[in-house]
Design brief:
The chain is α+β, with helices and mostly antiparallel strands. It is about 15% helix and about 20% strand. Strand 1 and strand 2 form a beta hairpin. The chain is globular.
Length: about 70
């Protein structure tokens, strides 16, 4: 059996509250938000207009969403 080393998950980037509920477009390194929009198409077009040829798009959670929990031992 061949085992592959699985890379550790990096901590996802924090999305500022001002983008809550919107589609956001990240640069290729996923370090900077280059554009946003109410729809996927709007965010994609804005990112391309900003010079990001291949943006990575994601839907930011609503500001009403709260994550509760943690590690238990």
């Amino acid at each position: 059996m061949i085992e592959k080393e699985v890379p550790q998950q990096e901590k996802p980037p924090v999305v500022p509250k001002e983008y809550a509920g919107q589609w956001i477009a990240w640069d290729q390194e996923q370090t900077q938000i280059v554009a946003s929009g109410r729809t996927y198409e709007e965010a994609c077009q804005a990112a391309i207009a900003a010079g990001e040829e291949h943006p990575l798009l994601a839907k930011a959670p609503s500001a009403k969403v709260r994550f509760v929990g943690g590690w238990s031992s």
